[in-house]
Design goal:
This protein is an all-alpha fold. The protein has 21 helices and three strands. It has a domain at 274-382: Orthogonal Bundle (Cytochrome p450-Terp, domain 2). Helices cover 59% and strands 2% of the residues. The protein binds carboxymethyldethia coenzyme *A. Residues 239, 270-272, 274, 307, 312-319, 364-367, 371-373 line the site of carboxymethyldethia coenzyme *A.
């Protein structure tokens, strides 16, 4: 057993009695009430999911295992000369709740490298897609095609004990995660640089650096990749992608089914696809102003035009957050250091000075502040990834780290099939009248 798996096993054994006690001693204790608005309004704020991997505070933003993003970026081990930590270290942290030592991450990098070979048929699946297909559709299908590799399914058919579900799920999750950067880079090269052909990974490199290498990008794109995958990894359990992954896995579908479904949820413009929408919307503004930074009044007019035509401002607002997203801030700080004179960054910064006030005046959005997607495309564009349809694939690679960690723990703690109750409009009307 690897060091990580051994530690994880120990943590699982320690944690199980807490769940058992909560259920046995407090199973019928009421912890929240549910309003009509929540039932009709997408279940906002209903406390009905449990995860220890991350927690999202509306005013502070995300914490991974209790650590803020700034702390995660500071504390996790880094490669020599790197500004951003190893992605593998984050997987270790999410699974165990502990910051790994340098040698523990190095072991994990070797383990990932041993698991990353992608079967030939996956490349065939990707190659069979028309070049106009959206990269998220291709990614979802590629992950789905790997389903036949599932250890969990083999063990399940052999009559595995429930207590061991986490073990083969860990194997599946780690095998899939190790392959995600290869699949992402292959899709990128096939769609946008077919002249390059397939770029094989470099066995001496870690997750982020290997991705940069396969994408044909020089430094500091390795750090961009690490930063990008780390900040997108998890956002507690209720967001569409994380929740979808958890829901599908709750029926004991294996991690390939669950991750493919998670990718499909992420591909919507109100969720992960917003990062591509931000760039599309910005390009409209840049074209209109011929690349010359507009005045504050011109910016305001552009924002109002979007709102008055019944569209949302992409990259702004959030279902839970009520402040500027720290994932936005991390990327902004990176931009200030590495690309302060980038023209698109200047547009993004200028918009930051006008959009929140306009959204407040507009009076609809509960959160007028920018989210992660308002900044992420700018960084990618600066380093030559200008094909913005691809941006959500990067989000999906990052998000799979959190979703897969959650699924392993779901199995370890024996969380059951998810099955909330629905009611009809008639029933709801009767309920409110009888109160
Ligand atoms: N621009 C214009 N209107 C907005 C808005 C925005 N950025 N954000 C919210 N609103 C509107 C909503 O559309 C809703 O309008 P209706 O009452 O007409 O339906 C109203 O304000 C209330 O919405 P809310 O409670 O503040 O927000 P929700 O929880 O319903 O939705 C989100 C959250 C993210 C979907 C929404 O803010 C939005 O559409 N933002 C733009 C898209 C975006 O950036 N998504 C990425 C989010 C981060 C991620 O998951 O990647």
């Amino acid at each position: 057993m690897s060091t990580l798996k051994e530690k994880l096993h120990k943590k699982i054994i320690e944690h199980r009695p807490r769940t058992t006690k909560l259920l046995k001693d407090y199973g019928d204790k009421v912890i929240a009430k549910v309003t009509v608005e929540q039932v009709i309004g997408g279940m906002r704020g209903i406390k009905s999911l449990i995860t220890d991997i991350s927690y999202l505070d509306p005013y502070e933003g995300i914490r991974y295992r209790g650590y803020t993003l700034q702390e995660v970026l500071k504390k996790l081990p880094k490669a020599k000369g790197a500004e951003m930590p190893y992605v593998e270290g984050l997987y270790y942290l999410l699974l165990t709740g502990e910051i790994p030592a340098q040698n523990e991450v190095e072991d994990l990098i070797i383990d990932f490298n041993n698991r990353r070979i992608v079967p030939r048929y996956v490349w065939d699946v990707i190659d069979s897609f028309p070049s106009e297909s959206h990269p998220m559709a291709i990614l979802s299908a590629a992950v789905m095609s790997l389903e036949r590799e599932s250890h969990f399914n083999i063990k399940y058919k052999q009559g595995m004990n429930k207590k061991d579900y986490w073990n083969s799920t860990y194997e599946d999750a780690t095998n899939l995660l190790a392959k995600m950067p290869l699949i992402g880079a292959y899709i990128y090269n096939k769609l946008y640089h077919p002249e390059r052909g397939h770029r094989y990974p470099d066995p001496s490199l870690d997750f982020g650096a290997n991705f940069a290498y396969m994408m044909g990008k020089d430094k500091p794109y390795d750090d961009v990749s690490r930063m990008y995958f780390i900040i997108h990894a998890d956002h507690e359990s209720g967001n569409v992608s994380a929740h979808t992954g958890h829901l599908v896995a709750s029926s004991l579908s294996d991690v390939y089914y669950a991750t493919s479904a998670m990718i499909n949820g992420l591909a919507g413009p109100l969720h992960g696809l917003a990062n591509q929408e931000v760039l599309r919307w910005l390009q409209g503004l840049i074209d209109l102003t011929h690349g010359k930074l507009p005045s504050k009044d011109e910016l305001k007019a552009y924002v109002w035009k979007t709102l008055n035509s019944g569209q949302v401002i992409p990259g702004y607002g959030h279902a839970v957050l009520r402040k500027t997203d720290p994932r936005y801030t991390v990327q902004r700080e990176f931009c200030l250091k590495h690309l302060p004179n980038d023209n698109i960054f200047k547009y993004v910064d200028a918009l930051y000075n006008v959009v929140p006030d306009i959204l407040k005046e507009h009076g609809k959005a509960k959160n007028p502040w920018p989210n992660v997607d308002a900044q992420s495309g700018v960084v990618q564009w600066h380093y030559g990834v200008t094909q913005y349809d691809f941006y959500t694939v990067l989000f999906a690679i990052g998000r799979s780290i959190g979703v897969l960690s959650n699924i392993i723990w779901d199995r370890a703690l024996g969380y059951p099939l998810e099955r909330p109750k629905s009611i009809t409009t008639n029933m709801l009307e009767e309920m409110v009248q009888s109160k």
